């Protein structure tokens, strides 16, 4: 019921239901429940509460003997730390998350973690190692035969090109990322990246038209300054800063983004 409530956009109701489930679990507190509560708190703009939830869930995840659960908790915790303005701690948590994710051989999750870290590095102007991360994600896509890591690699390559002021390459990479995602279970996320590609095109002085199953009639970007859009569809948001995060929370809760969406 809690998951259904979250998928329907009732985050407060979902949080209440998860709290009830946590209370009913008694001393056998569940790392998965605490993770869900941490994600919901973060999604509702309360990173301090989210941090407390993950502080409880991570030791339980360590004890569970399930590396994928630990890796997921650490990855999400790193995003909470980033929202709290503690990037060094966030980097350490993300680096730690990669160890159990690789141990679990969850290559898709590894690619997502690499994507989050690379985008954070680009945002902070740390570009030197990003090309190597893109190559790693491309290698993962080839090894597991999955389109999603390749789309994430294109997304990171696009943001890297934008940071280097190569607007043509940035747009091409972003449009390719959106095209690839349209053929996957994460097709909805392609809209966010299309909008980001449109923003890049506007910066370059081009007029673009975005078409998608959920954008009807088609969105024609204005010729004036870029507009930040936030075509919300709970539990996700199509803001490009969500960086195609599958089954995860939207980064639009960040003040620097929420003001623009």
| Content-based structural category | mainly alpha
- SS elements, strand count: 4
Q: What is the makeup of the main sheet?
A: 2 strands, antiparallel
User: Percentage of helical residues?
Assistant: 55-70%
N-C termini distance: 30 Å
Low-confidence residue ranges: 209-261
Q: What is the molecular shape?
A: globular
Query: How many helices?
Result: 12
> Largest beta sheet: what is the strand line-up?
1-2
Binned strand content: 5-15%
Structure description:
The chain starts with a helix and ends with a helix. The longest helix is centred in the first third of the chain and has 18 residues, at 47-64. It is built from 12 helices and 4 strands, in the order αααααααααααββββα. The protein has 261 residues and is mainly alpha-helical. The radius of gyration is 18 Å and the shape is globular. It is 64% helix and 5% strand. Residues 209-261 have low confidence and may be disordered. The strands form 2 sheets. The protein has a two-stranded antiparallel ribbon. The chain has a two-stranded antiparallel ribbon with strand order 3-4.
């Amino acid at each position: 019921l809690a998951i259904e409530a979250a998928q329907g956009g009732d985050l407060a109701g979902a949080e209440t239901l998860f709290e009830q489930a946590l209370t009913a679990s008694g001393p056998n507190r569940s790392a998965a429940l605490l993770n869900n509560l941490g994600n919901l708190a973060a999604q509702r703009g309360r990173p301090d509460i989210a941090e407390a939830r993950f502080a409880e869930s991570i030791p339980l995840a360590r004890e569970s003997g399930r590396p994928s659960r630990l890796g997921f908790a650490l990855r999400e915790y790193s995003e909470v730390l980033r929202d709290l303005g503690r990037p060094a701690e966030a980097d350490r948590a993300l680096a730690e998350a990669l160890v159990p994710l690789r141990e679990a051989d969850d290559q898709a999750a590894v690619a997502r973690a690499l994507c989050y870290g690379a985008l954070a590095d680009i945002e902070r102007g740390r570009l030197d190692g990003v090309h190597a991360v893109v190559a790693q994600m491309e290698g993962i896509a080839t090894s597991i035969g999955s389109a999603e890591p390749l789309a994430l690699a294109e997304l990171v390559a696009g943001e890297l090109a934008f940071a280097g002021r190569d607007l043509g390459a940035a747009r091409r990479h972003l449009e390719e990322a959106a095209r690839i995602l349209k053929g996957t279970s994460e097709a909805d996320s392609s809209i966010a990246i299309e909008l980001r590609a449109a923003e890049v095109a506007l910066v370059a002085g081009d007029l673009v038209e975005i078409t998608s199953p959920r954008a009807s009639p088609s969105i024609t970007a204005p010729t004036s300054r870029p507009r930040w859009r936030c075509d919300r569809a709970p539990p996700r948001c199509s803001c490009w800063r969500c960086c195609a995060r599958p089954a995860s929370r939207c980064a639009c809760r960040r003040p620097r983004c929420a003001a623009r969406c």
